[in-house]
Specification:
Length: 243
């Protein structure tokens, strides 16, 4: 034996299983505790949150979907986790380990605007800020914005998801993979959730802002050149018919 006794074999990939985990062990059934440990090992360290489908969860812990539902209900009843169910069984649900059972200090959530109208207006302004969006702010868009407000999703997360979605759309447009523009706020639903889970620095988001601006201008310039070429082709086409 050459290693120092008591020293970690691996400096990363471990979880601080202290008094919070001991408290859960004494409180939960074996199946629910197994699920709790899986969440602990896979949740975002900064937030204690993660997203996963029931099918993937059942496969990961070796239990049936029916058992997963029972364990999830137990975790909620014992106030170990908060669970936001998905719209359907194939979509990922949102899980957050409650502070009492999470050993890490959580990142402070940005305070959401207290004024619902201001919150929705900011989203409406976002929808009008990019040329890859061909849509007015429809009632369905406002309903989604209201739902995000009710959940307390920070405006910053929405802005980052919006930026990520637009950057990907411009990449698709420039690579001729699609010519369709964004026509609804619901286009950003999943990418807003993704933005909430990404662990990226402020430098990354500033870079992405610059990159999205560049791609937008490239796309506009290309469209302008294409329109000019079509106009010249029409002018040079031979005239036919009687005057």
């Amino acid at each position: 034996m050459t290693g120092q006794a008591g020293k970690l074999k691996h400096s990363s990939g471990w979880f601080a299983a202290g008094r919070e985990v001991s408290r859960a062990l004494a409180l939960l059934s074996d199946g629910a505790f197994r699920l709790f440990i899986y969440f602990c090992l896979n949740a975002d360290r900064r937030t204690g949150q993660m997203r996963i489908t029931h099918a993937d969860l059942a496969k990961a812990v070796g239990r049936s979907r029916r058992s997963i539902i029972i364990y999830m209900n137990e975790l909620q009843k014992q106030q170990v986790c908060r669970v936001q169910s998905a719209a359907n069984q194939h979509a990922p649900g949102h899980i957050e380990i409650c502070d009492t059972f999470w050993p890490y200090e959580k990142a402070r959530k940005e305070e959401a605007p207290k004024d619902r109208t201001s919150y929705i207006d900011q989203i409406r302004n976002l929808m009008g800020s990019r040329r890859c969006i061909a849509s007015s702010f429809a009632p369905a868009d406002e309903n989604l914005a209201n739902a995000l407000f009710e959940r307390g999703v920070p405006i910053q997360q929405i802005e980052r998801g919006f930026l990520l979605g637009c950057a990907r759309k411009y990449s698709t447009l420039l690579n001729n993979k699609s010519s369709e523009l964004i026509v609804a706020f619901s286009y950003f639903r999943n990418v807003i959730e993704e933005a909430g889970e990404l662990q990226m620095s402020e430098d990354y988001w500033r870079y992405l802002q610059r990159r999205a601006d560049q791609m937008e201008q490239q796309w506009l310039d290309r469209n302008q050149q294409a329109d000019g070429a079509r106009f010249n082709n029409r002018r040079s086409a031979p005239m036919s018919g009687r005057i």
